[in-house]
Amino acid sequence: MYWLKKYWYFAVIILVVAIWIYVNPSDTNQSENFIMTENTETTVEEIDRIEKGNEEQVVMVDVKGEIAKPGVYQMEAVDRVQDVIKIAGGLTKKGDPSAINMAERVYDEMVIIIPKKGEEGSIGAQSAVQSDGKIKINTATKEEIMQIPGIGEVKANAMIDFRETNGRFEKIEDLTKVNGIGEKTLDNIRDFVQIP
């Protein structure tokens, strides 16, 4: 009993802490919830990072013509033509910016030819027919698309209309979104089509 009289304040502190914990148990739960929320946010951030990594695909773009520094530039798939032109030092005084779609997204093996004022510019002007006979469907003309076995004028026009309305084909399976092209047609043309 002697020690209780000497150290009574320890007993009071322990009693106050015990009462505090008993009366306010929600504080402990809140800290646990906070930890769980923090972990959830980290998971969401990781998912965003993974998705962003997929978007940041590296592509090579060739810029020619009336440009300050013509050449091949490494870009990200989310970049636009204006970004490539900016990195390439901009247009020369003779370059015509109105002849090029500055808002178009870049893609791998893209060729941008900046024309002189008064001339027509082109993006992807090189032949869409590869040495291995495959057709680059995102840059091919109607005549080039019609070289694919089983594709006539109607389907070629449908592919071009779809491409102009919805943008580039990202994967070969996107061709099934075109009117008149189903799984069977896709299987037949798969070996003749290239989607960069």
TrEMBL record:
The chain crosses the membrane at residues 7-23. Coiled coil: none annotated. GO terms for cellular component: type II protein secretion system complex. One of its GO terms (biological process) is protein secretion by the type II secretion system. Keywords: Membrane, Transmembrane, Transmembrane helix. GO terms for molecular function: DNA binding. The keyword Disulfide bond does not apply. Residues 143-162, 173-192 form the Helix-hairpin-helix DNA-binding motif class domain. It comes from the Bacteria. PANTHER family: ENDONUCLEASE/EXONUCLEASE/PHOSPHATASE FAMILY DOMAIN-CONTAINING PROTEIN 1 (PTHR21180), ENDONUCLEASE_EXONUCLEASE_PHOSPHATASE FAMILY DOMAIN-CONTAINING PROTEIN 1 (PTHR21180:SF32). NCBIfam families: competence protein ComEA helix-hairpin-helix repeat region. This is Competence protein ComEA. It comes from Gracilibacillus dipsosauri. The lineage of its organism: Bacteria, Bacillati, Bacillota, Bacilli, Bacillales.
